[in-house]
Amino acid sequence: MSDTSVPTADTAGRRRAWLALGGLHLLNGTAPLAGTDAVVLVELDAPVEQPFPSNTVVVHWDRLGPLELSARTVDGSRRHTLKAQGDDLFPGMLPGEALRAAVAAVADGQAGPLVPLFYVTAEGDRAHVHSQIRFLAEDACFIRITPEPVATSEVENLGWLPEAVRLHAEQFLFLNNHQRYYRKCFGGKELEYKYTLTPPVDSWTLTVELYQEMLAGGLPGYIMEYRDEYQAWDYLNHLFEITGPEEERGYASFIPTTDGKHLLKRKWYAEDTFERRESHTYGLDLADDGRFERYIREELQVQAVRLPSFRRVRYDINFESVRTGHVYGIFFDHCSLVDARDVTLNQCELEYLRSRVAVEPDEAEVLTEMTEIVGWLEGFLRARGLNDQRGFYSKRTFLKDAVAARPELARKVDR
Fold it and tell me: What H or E segment, with its residue span, contains residue 102?
């Protein structure tokens, strides 16, 4: 799509937004787009997002207020309008009475269910289209599919719709499958800042307070990750420092999983740093009876030193940039040695996690946004009298320091 319109005094700089509602077949491809298809276009009082263009848009039905439903066939041969309330559009995820009446007035028979299809937002003479990827009773989530803007003049006559249906169809595997709409920038790498906190630390309360501040808009331009915003974790780590060959230095950690097997988490780095190569291998059928050591020796074929096992209790909040679709996590964790519960590490971590984008992701923006986020996070830590000096102090270094301070810990794990 290309932007070919000429701005006028009426359109220059003006922000507008529309919801397009219609048949699910336009998203799941069970029937092609036809001229007789009914589409309901709903212009909102104002865009629900701030940046333009945005990547991620979440529409809450109960925040829309009174609306005018402009129903028409795709070919424009039949039209009808009526009024409705936003929270009456999809009660219980089914089309409400007004929406059904609007469609019935222009279509002899609507094939298939009615759902939110697209969110279109415009600034001046430029518009972008966002596809619906999640739809629930309370809200719907849309992400941008247009790499280049369409002309605003095309919005109300649906000139953009055939290309939007085509773009969605091109990425149906990515857009139409539950939580498969993620990509990873910096493939195989971890980007992370760490703040080491002096105990005692109430990780739970800190996480809740940070969560509340973000919900209240404390970090403008970011929203909680849709339907995956708060997590709790509690697991063991059996960690080996890999000492050679030189290019393999780092660690390998065996983490028990709920199926009785183990996840192997590997990280490659010589010194604690912001960016580290990492990999995860699931489903290892191992036990702590010498098989960890054998796997290190025979499968990984590296030299390693076993460090003390530890338990990690962690609380996470996940949030995303509405502008770029990049998703970040802030974690508060408490680590304690299995054989010496009084030896602990308390940290706050900021990590890039993934990107929810249908257009080409901008990797450089990850670094820019992380710099922006740490400024806000450090203010939060300072306000509570906590360490606000970012660093890279790793679990491997913590375990090595613990053994250096208490050499008997090394003997306890020497199996």
Answer: helix 97-104
Placement of tokens 């009876």 in the chain: 289
Per DSSP, what are the bridge partners of residue 311? 236, 336
CA distance 327 to 319: 6
Q: Give the C-alpha separation, 220 to 329, whole Å.
A: 16
**pLDDT attached to residue 222:** 97
Helix (H) or strand (E) holding 39: strand 38-43
Check: pTM over 0.85? Answer yes or no.
yes
- Report the 10 Å Cβ neighbour count for 368: 13
Q: Phi/psi at 191 (nearest 5 deg)?
A: -115, 120
* DSSP labels, 103-124: HHTT-S---S-EEEEEEEEEET
Pairing between β-strand 230-244 and β-strand 303-306 as defined by DSSP bridges: antiparallel
Average pLDDT value for residue range 164-178: 96
| Structure confidence at residue 111 as a pLDDT band (50, 70, 90) | low
What is the 3-class SS of 339-408, one letter each residue?
A: CEEEEEEEEEEEEEEEECCCCCCCHHHHHHHHHHHHHHHHHHHHHCCCCCCCECCCHHHHHHHHHHHCCH
Helices (H), 176-276: 203-215
Question: Could you tell me if 395 and 272 are in contact, meaning their C-beta atoms sit under 8 angstroms apart?
Answer: no
pLDDT for residue 387 is more than 50? yes
175 Cβ partners below 8 Å, 6+ apart? 27, 131, 133, 143, 145, 168, 181, 358
Residue 69: CB atoms within 10 A of its CB come to 22
Q: Residue 245, preceding bond cis, omega within 30 degrees?
A: yes
Task: Report CA Rg, the chain.
Answer: 26
- 3-state SS of 274-309? CEEEEEEEEEECCCCCCHHHHHHHHHHCCEEEECCC
Across the chain, mean pLDDT equals 93
Candidate from 282-296, 310-324, 400-414 with smallest mean pLDDT: 400-414
